[in-house]
Specification:
17 helices, about 375 residues, Geranylgeranyl pyrophosphate synthase, two-stranded antiparallel sheet, Farnesyl Diphosphate Synthase
Length: about 375
């Protein structure tokens, strides 16, 4: 939410956004400083785990805390108090720790070498093991460290959420949403693993399986539950929560469809991961499902030879990119992102009972999360 030339309304949104960003940064540092103190009582080595996590969180876009924040402000017809900003920022921090846990483990599961433009944490730990001349397998060590740190992040997210204060009924409602978030994202992670293995038999076809993975792995912890946590925490009635849910499902689905595009035909500087990584990993995305359906026999043979192959050549990856474009699969996914973004905008426009400031913040976030201009230029 930054621009060199902003209107007074945009400037007000930026000021409100800045309050969240500042407070989340403060809470993250406070919480991890305290965790480091506790770990230092065990050993100097365990204390370094808090340092690793603090470093890992650097550079995050705070997308999920922002959805939580603006969802909360959508429940208000005024600017938030300092206490309300603090409560929303604490839940945003808890969600960010869940995100860290999910990414740490996801990179291990997917054998992803990079995250946010840097070596993935398991790769960093593997290199440190090797350079330090430690005993055993460097790869196994790196995997184990990432799993342990992910478990710690998930545990600490629970502790941060438990410290949120406010109206008891609203705090309890927000906590139910947070509990659902963690259950749903882990369930979605399992469905993703199952789909990758070809075992998601209850889905109608490959595209529906991929959409189900998006619905339960990405949507709940990226948009749906963060928005509902914030709104519930500031007292939104059930009618408003349901409206926000409809909006969040459209935005969250569009966000992941766009992310799938970026992973194969995007800009590495934007994604922080190697372009073509989803092809090498064999990610069973909606984009891939549509490419397979639309491809001719030669195209399907290319996909069989390249997708899911760690030794796929740059030429094969480039050929798959070209096939995704030539079959119309990229264009169809872009169109769906645009349609879902439009539907989400209509839902917010019709939700007159929501706070205008919060709605404007949500609309700005959605625009960022669903921007496909790079694919239509």
């Amino acid at each position: 939410m930054t621009s060199a030339d902003t209107s007074p309304a945009d400037a007000a949104l930026q000021d409100l956004d800045g309050r969240l960003v500042t407070r989340v940064a403060e809470i993250v540092r406070e919480e991890l400083t305290e965790r480091r103190r506790q770990l230092a009582m065990i050993s100097p080595e365990t204390a370094e785990l808090a340092d690793r996590l603090l470093d890992y969180l650097e550079g995050g876009k705070l997308l999920r805390p922002r959805f939580c924040y603006w969802g909360g402000l959508a429940a208000l017809q005024r600017d938030p108090s300092d206490a309300e900003v603090d409560a929303l920022a604490r839940y945003g921090t808890a969600i960010e720790l869940v995100q860290a846990a999910a990414l740490l483990h996801d990179d291990v599961i997917d054998h992803s070498p990079m995250r946010r433009g840097r070596p993935a944490l398991h790769v960093q730990a593997e290199c440190q093991h090797r350079e330090g001349g430690l005993a055993g397998s460097s790869e196994d060590y790196g995997t184990a460290v990432a799993i342990v740190l992910g478990d710690l992040a998930l545990s600490w997210s629970e502790q941060v959420a438990a410290g949120v204060q406010g109206d008891p009924g609203a705090v309890a409602a927000a906590r139910r949403e947070f509990d659902a978030l963690r259950t749903e994202v882990m369930s979605g992670q399992f469905l993703d693993i199952l789909h990758q293995a070809g075992g998601f038999a209850s889905a109608e076809d490959a595209e529906q399986a991929a959409l189900a993975v998006i619905r339960w792995k990405t949507v709940p912890y990226t948009v749906l539950r963060p928005v509902r946590i914030g709104a519930a925490l500031l007292g939104a009635p059930e009618e408003d929560l349901e409206t926000l849910s409809e909006w969040a499902i459209e935005v969250g689905t569009a966000f992941q469809l766009r992310d799938d595009l970026l992973s194969v035909v995007g800009d590495q500087n934007e994604t922080g991961k190697p372009i073509g990584g989803d092809i090498i990993e064999g990610k069973r995305t909606v984009l891939l499902a549509r490419t397979e359906v639309a491809a001719d026999p030669a195209g399907r043979a290319l996909l069989a030879d390249a997708v899911g192959r760690s030794d796929a050549s740059a030429q094969q990856i480039s050929a798959v990119h070209e096939l995704m474009v030539s079959t119309g699969a990229v264009a169809s996914v872009v169109a769906e992102v645009e349609q879902r973004a439009l539907r989400a905008g209509e839902l917010l426009d019709d939700a007159r009972m929501l706070g205008r400031t919060g709605s404007a913040g949500l609309s700005a976030l959605a625009a960022q999360a669903t921007d496909v201009e790079a694919f239509t230029a």
